[in-house]
Design brief:
With about 220 residues, the chain is an alpha/beta fold. It is about 35% helix and about 20% strand. InterPro entries: GTP-bd, P-loop_NTPase, Sigma_54_int_dom_ATP-bd_1.
Length: about 220
């Protein structure tokens, strides 16, 4: 994991030098409605940029990118519409499904999809969870892009948050879901009334997620001019 003081900044300027250039790493977060994808974006950037919602309706209607620099690399973190649609109609859910498929396919064909993040809640494994994994990772991306899983809503779990993964990793494997890495986190927004324990969990979560992203994006080949 990256050290606690690892520098992260949000920027609108490309990371470049006079002789070398490289595009930003494209990291796409996907998952069901209400799992905390937008809150995860805010955790990564350290800013409240992405709109969040306390209910189960999707607050992200289109693909939205947020630029962030982690150490010496520039990333575009993509927030996507929630799958399964919450209380929206089946038509809305189908549109979100179709748009994500097209977006991933476009990036993948161009060779510009660097990492998939499957965002899930800390609950039992469902058929929908498996279906989305197979559809977007196995079918669209042909298992050729790294995929990691981030488990949210663990702020109140007893002991270390990562203990959830130790108890449940076997279930993922039995269902054919294999990941290059994982992080068990809380994405709850900071509040002046938070306990020291919750603040520590949130700080740990930010470091864990940024490390996961940095370590699972393959270095680009730099072009010199």
């Amino acid at each position: 994991m990256l050290p606690a003081g690892f520098f992260t900044r949000v920027t609108g300027r490309p990371f470049s030098s006079p002789r070398e250039t490289t595009r930003a790493y494209n990291v796409v977060i996907f998952g069901e409605t209400g799992v905390g994808k937008s809150s995860l974006i805010n955790l990564i950037t350290g800013l409240h940029q992405a709109k969040t919602s306390p209910d189960v309706d999707s607050c992200t209607e289109r693909n939205q990118d947020y630029e962030v620099t982690i150490a010496d690399r520039k990333f575009k973190i993509w927030d996507t519409a929630g799958l399964n649609g919450g209380t929206f109609s089946r038509i809305h859910a189908a549109i979100a499904d179709r748009n994500l498929r097209r977006f991933l396919s476009k990036l993948h064909k161009k060779g510009e999809l660097d990492l998939l993040i499957y965002c899930v809640r800390a609950s039992r494994t469902t058929q929908a969870l498996v279906r989305h994994y197979k559809k977007f990772y196995s079918s669209v991306c042909k298992r050729s892009v790294p995929v990691v899983v981030i488990v949210t809503c663990l702020e109140n779990t007893p002991g270390e948050m990562d203990s959830w993964w130790q108890r449940n990793v076997g279930n993922f494997g039995k269902l054919g879901m294999v990941f290059a890495g994982h992080a068990c986190v809380t994405t709850i927004a900071d509040d002046p009334g938070d306990t020291a324990s919750l603040r520590a969990r949130r700080e740990y979560s930010g470091r864990a997620v940024r490390s996961l992203i940095y370590e699972n994006c393959r270095p680009h080949k730099l072009h010199t001019y």
